[in-house]
Amino acid sequence: MHPETLQLLTLSILHPKHGKLGDVTAVLVNSRCSNLFLEVMDIDTELFTIGSAIFDKYGEIRPWLVDGEYSKGSGVWGRELNDGKLFFVFCVSVEPQYRNQGIASWALQQLYASEYVHKDDKFLCWPSPVPRPPSEQWVTAFDGIVDFFRKVGYRRVGATAFFAYSQDPDHPSRTKDRLDDFDPDYTFSTSGPHPRSALYDAISADKSENIVQVIQDAHAKDPSCIHQPDSHGFRPIHIAVMSDNLHALRTLIALGLTDDDFHSRQNGDHLTPLEALSGEMCESREFQEIFKREGWEGHSNTKLQLEAMLKRAMGHPMPATDDEYISKKKWGCTCDKCHGGWLSPRTMIRLHDAAEVGGDTVLDDIDEVVPREPMETVFIEFHPFLSYIPLRLWRDMYKTFISGYSVVFRTIARLLSRCILPTETTVLAEAVDNFDYFENKSLKFYFDKEGRVEYALAAMANYAEEDPFDLYVDDEPFKKASRGVNDREFDIVKKMIGLNPKETWGPYSASPERAEPMRMFDSDDSEAEELKAFFGEEESGGEEIDEEESEEEEGEEESEEEEGEEESTEEQGEASTGEEDMDDS
Ligand SMILES: [Zn+2]
Asked: Could you tell me the pLDDT band of residue 169, with boundaries at 50, 70 and 90?
């Protein structure tokens, strides 16, 4: 999957007389991979750092970079970053003797003009000087690189360390003067001259009820202590929230926190306590989604309780009890309309319709089945519902078996129409004596031949998720059902209806090439190996320039226009050996 998704592009700047003057290296993300955007990038890579700071698992811009009071930065970037393909510009390097002639910006223009790039595509970069200069030169080198990218039209994405470029000359990022671009505010260090007190250490270390007395005693001695920021700008409320200390947070709130405490982001992370908490919850969720086979287990109850406490103290509209809040928010619902906090109204419609379609379409080819013989493989293999029956049962797929499978779908649809969650238990209970003689007989045959309710549930869930016919584009009842963040969360749905994420649930295929498992990459090898495996087939396009053209360039004066990553340049060079001669220039 990765080689089709990620493509390494190396554009060599070749000169007819002087040979190679430098290169531009970029990674093209070909598709946002439905909900696997973050999973296709190996963690611990620059790609993941940039990708996950700006985008969620759907490859869509983080909401706080658009709406966050501070996090949106200058606000020039918005949801248009969700459109088009993404290029991560990793390295723009020019040999030292050829710098200051505009070659780097010229090379970037060649990249934009290349066949790989389309109008809507966006370019991202993380300006950093590599190899790392000695620390006393770091700031100058870094500023120089930021300056270079700003001169060629890149602007900061929100308050992140990353910059982006749009090819549209009317895009807000292109009309914003580079001198007005957003830079993070480092003034917090002057606002928190207090060293970290014993109170901070106690809050971060002691989550027992003892902390209540400790805070009360400290407050009795010096009432201001519960507001004082430490040298990094963090207040006791931040420490209580970040160390999951419920007793401490409750005590601080009871003693009387101010608006300042709740809203202060004059700290190293530039986050208010509530923002810091949401960020942690989001990170922990994504970590589980990417790395745990069982997937996300829902938000932690402790974090949800901290969140409830904070919001209540801040005057947000809240349900009567914290428990109610926790069960509503456990599975990320923000619409308040999700059944059980996870099954959104739109998903409910999709699942119900998919179950009905399943009940009908598994019978489509039943007349082709010869009595007392199983259905021919060709009818099963490409069927959107029949192909969820495991291979070993295909020899038993007689007419009666298929009729029984259809009854399972109809049972599921009946449950969903009454807003009852279909699981093995509820489906079996509903199926008992609810059908006529023949239906009951075929259902019994289905189960006797080891058919399971889960096969139908898996087929239904995947059909609903993929929505192969775009059923809902013009569907009024669907459009009227409220939209929510959980509309796309089919991993939660599958888990909740009893499909263990550690097992595979089809579709199955008799042809080995279709059944082949997804290729995984070994990350233990050397970085060069990793790069090769990661990017698969490498594309290498050389660009030749002639002397006149390069001298006519707008004449960059700074020497910092190079971002040469020594290590990775070598490796990429290795990986592209022999390919550069094949370039089209
Ligand atoms: Zn919801």
From this structure: very high
